[in-house]
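Please review the protein record below. Let me know how this chain folds according to its tokens.
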Amino acid sequence: MSGRQNDLDNLMRELGVDAPRTSDIHPEQDPGGSSTGLSDIDADFDSDSPDAQRVPTMFRRNEADPAPPDLTGSGLGEAIERTAHQIDSAEDRIRPMDAVEEFWRPEENASSESEDLSEALLRDAVVAPDILETAKRVQAQSPGRGLPEILLEMGMDQNGIQRTVARHSGLTFESVNPGLISRELVDRISCEFCQQNGCLPLREEGNRIVVGTIRPDDVFVLDQVKTMLGVVAVKHVLITPADVITAVETLSADSHMDYDVQEILADVEEDDVEVIENKNQDEEDDAQSSPVVRYVNHLIQTAVKEGASDIHIEPSEKALKIRLRIDGVLYEMMNPPRKMLASITSRLKIMAHLDIAERRLPQDGRIRVTVMGRQLDLRVSTIPTPHGEKTVMRVLDNRSIRVALDDLGFTEDTLAAWRRQIDRPHGVILVTGPTGSGKTTTLYASLQQMDTTRLNVSTVEDPVEYQLNGITQIQTHERINLTFAASLRALLRQDPDIVMVGEIRDHETATIAIQAALTGHLVLSTLHTNDAPSSITRLINIGIEPFLVSGAVNGVLAQRLVRRICDQCRTEIEMSPEAHHVLANHDLDCTTLWSGQGCPHCRESGYSGRLGIYEMLEIGDSLRDSIAASPSVTEFRNLCCAEGMRTLRDDALLKMAEGRTTLQEVLRVTDGG
């Protein structure tokens, strides 16, 4: 009996409850060998004594129960005198919950969890009162869903909400650094389990494992994690869903399967099958294990690892060349045997659901794949050439649009001007630049800054490159006459607040966009012009009346992308006479220039990543009067510069002076005219 008692005492101490003294429950036997009776203990026990207060409720004993009633009915109707054995109040009665009262006691007059959490969210200024009321209404119609989950789905700040929920639940909130997560712990429970259940084993602390979850009441998930890790205790912390996704993607990317290219090419024979028809499951399994399929998988995987935006498969008369566009520049990466061209092209057509028998006409398709734990879309385009079909694939990674405006490379004044434009209630805002200059990323980042819970945001695109939550996206189809103009006309009957048009290509689309802006809608769109002032003259040349352009257009943002100097090999260099001349012409005082020497991290190029350079044109009253007079491009550009517009080259030179890019990149990307 003493062993069990010791176990119980230890358990109570771990739970923070003082265990009773052994003498209070099992008194020592007297020298004569006879034990003290319970009646003696009850007689000597004073419930008001300090020792009694140390004894938990489960061990306290009341006075002896009164005698049972007389079943013969004697004494009915007579008054009963109160005795010491009678229970004075309801508090003295023993209830089933008395045994756990010392472990947990509900607060009196405590309100519900959602009400307490609501007050905490408002006190911390995490959500606005109207957003909170909307979330409560949704919660009332969604049984089983918590308020934090609904707020997160509405796009509220994840860190702020989870921090408040953690404090309200008595937990610790942690921001996760993927580089510090224990890879061994994650492998033991798998990345798939973490992603499905919204949890991460973070690290070891003594005999415990620190486990982060996205919900404070994930007790069953914690039990599963303990079982899978084989540990007795875990420390529960709260993390954000975004941290789980980022960590899983990072860890999955590090555990991808590497292909032995030489082994693959050794299996390629002259008579490899060019057309694969999946007639049954066995043939499909054979196709998945063929060397051509493995080589295509290796090609896509390499492009994702290198951060390529495009894959070019280019045939010549006697060779086959594969190039990847990395940071805006094409690098030759592979030279497979020329005989593999037809097999590689057929495999890509099968994946994109294209006609593999048609080799005389261009074809376009789309491939959705999972590479290194990340879901990607590949836009496939094939064209016939004299030496075979050339294939180009655009890699669309959703992680590239999960970028805040602050991280795009805006200077402070340009970012403030752009925010003023997208916060306006109506008008046309244009983003200009060549293909691949980052226009879509800028527009998507701007849309994600808007309050989609209170605004109806819709887009018309060709194609829909990325899926955005809370935004209605329309894909145009020229073959069925669903053009930009037709889609925009239909969209204006859907009560929109903000409309994004993928591109203004013709007079009809431009007219509808201008009319939508003049009738109280905010319209964002793109144009293919070299600079911001040229966009105004382009609209006039399309056929829009100058007075309509001056009244509808609020601002134009021209942009390019320049390569960023690699942080791993960045060194200071001497300023050349050419650099002195360029800086002097632009009135820049800079004494130090930087360059990348080349290292394995940047493929010996000296550059790693890209940043934007911008030309922000805000249309003021004086410029509106000038637009109404239909000026030429040169005249209007001079007027804009006189009004304080910073050109693309000026912005690029500022970033060069800050040591973020090089003079060679500035001269390569920008026009000095």
